[in-house]
């Protein structure tokens, strides 16, 4: 896939969570070769952090591979915990000919997943979101490295 093809590629990915106070959130979004990250935690009076970067076709293919291998598009969030006072987590994916959008209560740990009515489906969601967070945080760390590696 060439860089110009990324503009025409319908692949879309958005995941994030919102805390109990509504203004606390973390979100990743991928569309047309661009990853956007936003974090507003209000931890120690932090301000809103926004990062944006363009990625190569190889990175996009890896994002797609992660989503496809998770088989999250086969899941249904009907039996998952509904958003509540603690917050909510979301995942929206448009890949191949499928478009899914999930919303559930904010997951604090794997114990929350195991207590769910649909623990197996929620586990797929949980691990996919964790994998995506790790991958995207790694990209952000590499892209915005404060002290570049000197040769």
Describe the structure.
There is one protein chain. This protein is an alpha+beta fold and 151 residues long. The protein is 33% helix and 30% strand. It contains four helices and six strands; from the N terminus they run αββββαββαα. Strand 2 and strand 3 form a beta hairpin. It is globular, with a radius of gyration of 16 Å. It starts with a helix and ends in an 8-residue tail after the last helix. The model has no long low-confidence stretch (mean pLDDT 88).
**What is the helix content?**
25-40%
Strand content: 25-35%
Count of runs of 4 or more consecutive helical residues: 4
Q: Let me know the largest β-sheet.
A: 6 strands, antiparallel
Low-confidence segments, given as residue ranges, are none
Please give the order of strands in the largest beta sheet.
Answer: 4-3-2-1-5-6
From the alpha-carbon coordinates, what is the Rg to the nearest angstrom?
Answer: 16 Å
Shape: globular
Strand pairing plus helix content: what structural class? Answer: alpha+beta
Number of DSSP E strands: 6
Kindly state the mean pLDDT as a whole number?
88
Task: Tag the structure with descriptive keywords.
151 residues, alpha+beta, 6-stranded antiparallel sheet, 4 helices, 30% strand, globular
